[in-house]
Amino acid sequence: MGRIIAVANQKGGVGKTTTAVNLACGLAQQGQRVLLVDLDPQGNATMGAGVEKRTALPTAYQVLLGEADIYASRLRSEQGGFDVVPANRELAGGEVEMVDLDKREFRLKAELVRVAQEYDFILIDCAPTLNLLTVNALAAAHAVLIPMQCEYYALEGLTDLVATIKKVKQKLNPGIEIEGLLRVMYDPRSTLAQQVAAELKSHFGDKVFNTVIPRNIRLAEAPSHGLPGVVYDRASRGAQAYLDLTRELLDRYGIAVGAA
Ligand code: ATP
Ligand code: MG
Asked: Is 260 part of a structural domain of the chain?
């Protein structure tokens, strides 16, 4: 069964989608079978994977409401080399409609277990909230990957997220763990960033990935071309950092890593 990793942080614009898309692509380039689930009504992961969100049907919305099968919702990111369960703005309504459904926290998990055998990794791109959609991701996940910018308020936000993960662990998903904290958009010249990074290390130790993702314009340009950064400009520092992250992750699972 594929390892299910939720990419989450309720703070907006911290690099969740960029991380989910580039890691999905990096893993695929290493021969891993990858599914990327877009669980954000913004549909940024869908677009970033080169899939048109406006015409995608069915999407995560229909899947979560039990109106469509996850099999039927999967589309291929041709350039990325992985499968995508797409999302678009419809999903915002789904969050509300799901509240009345049976086993509402486990809607996603029930669908993912059906396809999990077909993948080595399933990445879930979460929206910047801790709502029922994100709870579904956390209830389904083996682990959470938390991208964060090393800013003053970052640690405060992290406390809320860690508290939510703890609650989910107690009530919904005893096996959930933190896959790792990823420092993104990192500026090594900033003293504050260095301080926050050091504080992270002292609190979370090995849970902090050694790989650091620098601020890099090529990563920000890539989505407008419908390409993961690691495809759009593979030689860029940002892309190289995501390829390093891919290797670091695979290394943890003892999966042999190629030069790709
Ligand atoms: P949201 O909370 O809205 O879903 P997010 O956490 O998914 O946002 P992204 O969409 O990945 O964050 O990134 C926010 C913005 O920052 C985007 O415009 C993205 O292209 C840009 N960005 C992400 N990572 C980097 C980076 N390392 N260097 C430069 N720009 C980046
Ligand atoms: Mg996003």
From this structure: no
Q: What is the CATH number of the domain that holds 212?
A: 3.40.50.300
What pTM, to 2 d.p., does this model score? 0.97
| CB of residue 157 inside a 6 A radius of ligand 1 | no
| Residues in the chain, overall count | 260
Which residue's CA is minimally distant from atom 8 of ligand 1?
13
pLDDT range class, residue 157, cuts 50, 70, 90: confident
Number of domains in the chain: 1
In this structure, is residue 151 part of a structural domain? yes
Residue 220: CB within 6 Å of ligand 1? yes
Q: Is residue 93 domain-resident? A: yes
Query: What is the atom index within ligand 1 of the atom nearest the CA of 216?
Result: 28
The rounded distance, in Å, linking the Cα atoms of 141 and 7 is 10
